[in-house]
From TrEMBL:
<feature type="domain" description="UspA">
    <location>
        <begin position="4"/>
        <end position="139"/>
    </location>
</feature>
<dbReference type="InterPro" id="IPR014729">
    <property type="entry name" value="Rossmann-like_a/b/a_fold"/>
</dbReference>
<comment type="similarity">
    <text>Belongs to the universal stress protein A family.</text>
</comment>
<feature type="domain" description="UspA">
    <location>
        <begin position="153"/>
        <end position="285"/>
    </location>
</feature>
<dbReference type="Pfam" id="PF00582">
    <property type="entry name" value="Usp"/>
</dbReference>
<dbReference type="InterPro" id="IPR006016">
    <property type="entry name" value="UspA"/>
</dbReference>
<protein>
    <submittedName>
        <fullName>Universal stress protein</fullName>
    </submittedName>
</protein>
Length: 295
């Protein structure tokens, strides 16, 4: 059995989006599903003093929200309910993930995002600076997809430099667990002054992108195979807009090189992609094999 999938649930539309995708991911990978509500800990507020009756009220309310969440799941879906108190929503999810050995933390977009689009809020931003397990960012409206929509394809954004071991490992594990096909993607934007020789830069960049994609494809097991795509455009956003996206697709990106080992940090390219992609994005942390040896 695969490691558990955690959904950071809130009784909102984005919370239901996260629940819908988390349930699909868990079902596709034969993983246990944990739905978690994180409540404020006693020390989280210096204004309101601790009140046992209020804490009981909050937990009772959280239980009702989880009842409603379970009712949204396909009949017979096994689920473990979690109600935790923590200094922050993100901290509670990370502590739970470490405790149960979770494979992913799934969260919805912040309020105010358009349907089919991502929007980062304080919780997701904190997660993307501190989580040591992959975080799944789910766009608005994902709950509208049928519950049996398969995870048909994994698109893996490969950077311009070699060295995507953690991303490849996550791709192989997820493809093996779900049976999804793999598409390796490199972006070739040209966002330069008008005086630059964009044709020469594009040609050189295309060669470099192809070399990196070929190296990444060689790291995949033969049983998976992979489609290889170089997306071109005048900007990252333009290149992403020109791609086709399937209803059950998932995008995987690696953490920025600025991130500490075993931690997340959303790089500038991934952040730009986030504004345009209409599918869930999995951000994979950097790892290291031994102390001091980064991967």
């Amino acid at each position: 059995m695969s490691a558990p999938v955690i959904v950071g649930y809130t009784a909102t539309k984005p919370g239901r989006d996260a629940l819908a995708f988390g349930a699909r991911l868990a079902a596709a990978s034969a993983a246990p599903l944990h739905v978690a509500i994180i409540l404020p800990s006693e020390g989280r507020s210096v204004i309101t003093p601790p009140d046992a009756s209020y804490d009981r009220h909050l937990r009772a309310q959280a239980g009702e929200w989880l009842d409603a969440a379970e009712a949204l799941l396909p009949e017979g879906t096994p689920v473990t309910r979690q109600i935790r108190a923590a200094e922050s929503f993100a901290e509670g999810l990370i502590d739970l993930a470490d405790e149960i050995g979770a494979s992913h933390i799934v969260v919805g977009a912040a309020d105010g995002g358009a349907r089919g689009r991502h929007r980062l809020g304080s919780t997701t931003t904190e997660l993307l600076h501190s989580s040591d397990v992959p975080v799944v960012l789910v766009p608005r409206g994902t709950r509208k997809l049928a519950a049996d929509t398969p995870l048909g394809r994994l698109t893996v954004a490969i950077g311009t430099r070699p060295g995507a071991d953690a991303l490849i490992e996550e791709t192989v594990a997820l493809a093996d667990a779900t049976g999804a096909s793999v598409r390796l993607l490199s972006l070739l934007p040209v966002d330069l002054p008008a005086t630059a020789d964009t044709a020469a830069i594009r040609t050189a960049g295309s060669t470099a992108a192809s070399d990196v994609l070929a190296a990444a494809r060689a790291e995949l097991p033969d049983r998976l195979g992979a489609e290889v795509v170089v997306a071109e455009g005048d900007s990252i956003e333009d290149a992403v807009r020109g791609l086709d996206w399937q209803p059950g697709e998932v995008l995987l990106v690696g953490s920025s090189r600025l991130a500490r080992p075993r931690r997340l940090f959303l790089g500038s390219t991934a952040a730009k992609m986030l504004h345009e992609v209409p599918v869930p994005m999995i951000v994979v942390p950097r790892t290291r094999t031994q102390e001091g040896e980064q991967r």
